[in-house]
Amino acid sequence: MEDSASYVRMVHRLIEECILFNLSMEECMEALSKHANIIPVITSTVWKELEKENKEFFEAYAKSRAERAATDQILAGIQRMLSHVNSDVSKTQSLD
């Protein structure tokens, strides 16, 4: 029984590392499967238990991830616009 409890604690710690890297549950499941040979259903089960125990934290975490994703989309759009502007300026300058 102690082995399974220590295994769950290890998965718990690895999930905390995933959270520090701002990963979603799905991304964490994939990362732990690939890098730690942890079966995704184990990661999912521990993650969901952590969500139950820390509901407010995970609600804030989900909101933060959504806000970050929106910000990333806005920044990507601005970068595309600037790229087009720079391209247009370069074309104009080469005509001179």
Report on the structure:
Helices cover 90% and strands 0% of the residues. The protein is mostly helical and 96 residues long. It has two domains: 53 residues; 39 residues. Helix 1 crosses helix 2 and helix 1 crosses helix 3. The mean pLDDT is 90.
Question: Top keywords for this entry?
Answer:
2 domains; 96 residues; CHP01589_pln; elongated; 0% strand; 90% helix; mainly alpha; 4 helices
Beta-strand residue fraction: under 5%
Number of helices: 4
Would you count the extended β strands for me? Answer: 0
CA-based shape? elongated
Question: How far is it from the N-terminal to the C-terminal residue, by CA?
Answer: 78 Å
List the helices and strands in order.
Answer: HHHH
Count structural domains: 2
